[in-house]
Amino acid sequence: MTAPLLSARAVTKRFGNRVACQGVSFDLWPGEVLGVVGESGSGKTTLLNCLAGRLAPDEGTVEYETAVMGTVDIHRLSEARRRLLARTEWGFVNQDAREGLRMGVSAGANIGERLMAIGARHYGNIRQSATDWLERVEIDFDRLDDRPTTYSGGMRQRLQIARNLVSEPRLVFMDEPTGGLDVSVQARILDLLRGLVDSFHLSAVLVTHDLGVARLLTHRLMVMQGGQVVEEGLTDQVLDDPHHAYTQMLVASILPV
Amino acid sequence: MPDTNAPQAHDAAYNYAYLDEQTKRMIRRAILKAVAIPGYQVPFGGREMPLPYGWGTGGIQVTAAIIGRDDTLKVIDQGADDTTNAVSIRRFFARVADVATTTKTEEATIIQTRHRVPETPLKEGQILVFQVPIPEPLRMLEPRETETRTLHALTEYGVMQVSLYESIARHGRISKGYNYPVLVNGRYMMSPSPIPKFDNPKLDRNPALQLYGAGREKRIYAVPPYTPVKSLDFDDHPFEIERWTECCAYCGSTESFLDEMIVDDQGKRLFVCSDTDFCESRRK
Amino acid sequence: MLPVLHVRGLNKSFVMHAQGDLALPVLRDVALSVAPGECLALVGPSGAGKSTLLRSLYGNYRADAGSIRVRHHEDWTELVGAEPRVMLDVRRHTMGFVSQFLRVIPRVASVDVVAEPMLRLGADPEKARQRAEFLLGVLGIPERLWSLPPATFSGGEQQRVNIARSLIADYPVLLLDEPTASLDQANRDGVIELIQQRRDAGAAIVGIFHDVAVREALATRIHDVALPGVQA
């Protein structure tokens, strides 16, 4: 592939007078997981939403290399096209699983939805795919007909991941996918994500404030402070040889265990 | 009561068919747009009618906009011509529209109906006016009007398929028995109003014009004659209509929609055609 | 024999912003070359920059100036200032690194930790697993530990898992930072033998070996990091 999968150029977003993110540019290549770290108010979530087409930036462009349509400026697409991309080639894992799930229908229906949205009409096959995916995210298959309201937080998050990955997206956006979960649950989900990224050759943009998560899951890292990218590079390089004062402070602030 | 009543002079205190001419014009425009886009819900400026929401104000406004002195009107309520509501609406139009009325399906030019399609096959030139409570088929799944309009515009109907999946997962089959969602002309998903799913096949490529009026929600939609109307299903759980082991106790029909009636305190049951005209004509 | 790793004018310092932007120069005009079959041992006093140099070659530390070129996919690739995806590709196919400490990932079995670099190259999972088991066996890790995550292993066991992981793929260039540090005599000899085999099969190796005996068994040349500008 000769073009990057996702290209951001000078992405800037303001809310009134406040600049949430400023002049962010990068290229994401297939198979890369890019981490965006920063503390609250750094602009990382705003950036993620601009990249995923959920927010329109005030300046700059976000270009995506589609599977069959060539490169598109995602904010110039019609809403129909963008929503279709979001349902097929992209995934979005929310920090709160409830925002990414239909809490009122069964796990099987949640996972099957993307398939049904693109025309799957065989109940048995849909159910089988949903069962396969439950297994992949390590949820007992006899929970297939249960609603996510009966699931624990960690299970809901794994269900959200399955719901997104069933359409085998090429690019997954993740917003603090393990935020708020118990440490052991976190470890399980991070391990799951690692495995899925590897086996499905996913590319991802992952927003987190947790440097340990970044170390484990990402190949590259961008450090944001006050809306700006202050440092970027290979994850192990940014964490082991931080150059910017803010990055050095962040790395030094990790509590030892 | 005789089958067909000749027109009487209409009550001069009202404009013809009760609505003023501008309102009829507005509703006719909405109907034209609805016919041009089969299954698409057209908003209209619904008026106050002499009966509350939930009693057929939408159907009445549609009928009032299209009815003329040459028409013959039939009104049924759950298949019957003789319920209080059917009688009231029929008398209303007899009084304000100078129009002949009938209970015989073959003789009507306009049939206003609540929750059933007549058993007798309709012909070209007839118009079937449905009374609709909730015009939006996705309403129970997506409460936001802004979102359902977007879903229709983008043909994003996955959520309805999800609800059918969920029904099979919970009950072993698609359990929806009435107001069963359909796809009209391969494009818009439509609520056929709370008719039993038994009647859904009758909507497909019907020679008559179907008009749907929702008074409280102020929407009109239409299915032109000979338009494909397909009930949603799964390949391995195809759409099926209801069947009874009994036949009609009055006329012996095994092909019509049967109502179950409890006839005494011991719980004795009778199954009877819901379409009173159909049943009667078989007994003659 | 032509070198596969070629370093010129490499400079690196650390700037500690929390200490008033204190600058610590560590590498100054470092130059070296390594050819297939050679093992270059980095020597010098503690703090002279041996580990820094090794990590800079791997891209784990970012060089300030200079050139690090490696033969990658039959062409010379410049690593200083390279885009992340280039470095990632070099690490996947061409350059392996044995650090002093195994970064422990929870829940992943040691056999899978070892097999991973081979799987990343698209190898058959069964073959990768077999080779991982072979290496673990050669390095003396008992079979009952293969399906366990290394988090609870001893330091020496973790180090041997680390070594197995770095040797499973046939990297043309190997960077070794104290590979035998936590090992006892018997295991040390096993590791030395494995690395010798790799060297003799044509790998170009740069290593830090505190243990003189290990150094003497493996090194074909010495590079003294404390002497700036000396060509090796």
Structure description:
The complex is a heterotrimer of chains A (257), B (284) and C (232). Chain A has 257 residues and is of the alpha/beta class. Chain A has helices at residues 44-51, 79-88, 107-117, 123-136, 153-165, 183-199, 211-217, 235-240, 245-252, and strands at residues 6-15, 18-28, 33-37, 59-65, 71-73, 90-93, 171-175, 203-208, 220-225, 228-234. Chain A is built from nine helices and ten strands. The longest helix of chain A is centred in the last third of the chain and has 17 residues, at 183-199. In chain B, strand 9 and strand 10 (219-223) form a beta hairpin. Helix content of chain B is 26%, strand content 19%. Chain B has an eight-stranded mixed sheet with strand order 1-4-3-5-6-9-10-2. A three-stranded antiparallel sheet of chain B has the order 8-7-11. Chain C is α/β, with parallel strands linked by helices and 232 residues long. Chain C is built from seven helices and nine strands; from the N terminus they run E-E-E-H-E-E-H-E-H-H-H-E-H-E-H-E. In chain C, strands 6-7-8-3-9 form a five-stranded parallel sheet, with helices on both faces. A four-stranded antiparallel sheet of chain C has the order 2-1-4-5, with helices on one face. Classes of the chains: A alpha/beta (257), B alpha/beta (284), C alpha/beta (232). Chains in contact: A-B, A-C. The A-C interface holds A 29, 32, 187-188, 191, 194, 198, 215-216, 219-220, 233-234, 236-237, 240-241, 243-245, 248-249, 252 and C 14-18, 55, 59-62, 84-85, 87-88, 103, 105-108, 119-120.
